[in-house]
Amino acid sequence: MSKPLIAVTGTNGQLGWSLQQIAANYPDYDFLFTNRTQIDLANFSSIDDFFANHQPQIMINCAAYTAVDKAENEQTQALTINAMAVSKIAQHCAAIGATFITISTDYVFDGNGTEPYTTQQPTNPVNYYGFTKNMGEKLALENNENTIVIRTSWVYAPHGNNFVKTMLRLMKERAFISVVEDQVGCPTYAPDLAKAIMQVVTQLPHTSKRGIYHFSNTGIISWFQFATAIQQMAKIHCTVQPIPSSAYPTPAKRPAYSAMYVQDIQNDFNVELTPWENSLAECIKALQ
Predict the structure, then answer these.
(1) What CATH number is given to the structural domain containing 135?
(2) Catalytic residue list contains 129
C-alpha cells in the first residue's frame, strides 16, 4: 500500500523549512516540498498543472504574501496569493478528496480585544494583509469542507527573516534600540508550529474535527518584552527602550492586541503547547 502523500507549499519560508526539518520523523507519509517553481500561487495555471500531476491526500499551504506594509500598495498581488490562490487550491483538494490545511494570522482581528481571541469571535482586519488572509480563510472553508485553518502569530525561526534575527543583529550593532510596547500578542516558534501541524495530520484519521484553530506558544507579551527577553537570553550589551506605536509609524496599521486562545487545538488534536520563553531559548541557542 502506498503511503499518504503530503504536499507542502512555501518550502523556502520559515514554516515550510521547519516542516522539512522534521519530515524524516514521520516515515508513514511521503512528502512533496514545493517552492515557487513547482507551484506558484500568483499563477493559477501553475496550480492547475500541479494538481494534474500530483494527487496529495493532504495539502499544507505555508506559502503566503506576508509583506504587511507592502500589501497596502500591492493589493492585487496580496489578494491573489492570500485569497484567490487559496480558494483554487481548496477547490482542487475538494475534487480529489484531500484534506487542506492552510495557515492564517492573528491580523484577521482588529486588536480592540482585552483577552485572547477565540475562533468564534468576529474578525475585523485593520490592514489589507489581514483582509486578504481573512478572505483566504473564508474561501478555503467554503470550497472544501475538509479544511483546517490554523491562525498563528509573530512567527520566527532560525531560518528566514524575522523579529528575533533582526533584534539580534541590531543589538550587536547598536548601544540602544527602541521597540514598541503597546502591541501585545503571542510569539510562535515555527518548529513548534510545524510539530503541531504534523500532530494534527496524524490525528486526521481519528477525528472529524475541521474548521478554524489557533496556535502560538503560550504567554502574552509586548514586542518590547519580547525584545528584552532576546537581549537577556543572548547576553548582548544593548539597552532596549520602550516606545509607543505612534513613535514608529508604518504604512499598515497593526492590531494593538492580537493574543489568541489556543486551547482548542490541544483539546481536539492533542497538540503540545510550549511557553514562549522555552522556545525562544531554543531558537537563540540554534542561532548562536
Answers:
(1) 3.40.50.720
(2) yes
The reply to whether 283 falls in a domain is no
Closest CA to 156 of 184, 192, 128, 126: 192
Using a cut of 0.85, tell me whether the model's pTM lies above it. yes
Is residue 173 domain-resident? no
- 155-156/211-214 β-pairing: unpaired
Q: Of 65, 117, 129, 213, which residue is the catalytic one?
A: 129
Number of structural domains (the chain) is: 1
**Secondary structure E strands in the chain:** 5-9, 30-33, 58-61, 99-105, 147-152, 155-156, 176-180, 184-185, 188-189, 211-214, 221-222, 239-243
In a domain, 175, yes or no: no
* Residue appearing with cell numbers 502560538: 216
For the segment 93-107, what is each residue's pLDDT rounded down to a tens digit? Answer: 999 999 999 999 999
Which residues span the domain enclosing 54?
A: 5-161+188-218+257-274
pLDDT digits (tens, 9 = 90+) for 41-59: 999 999 999 999 999 999 9
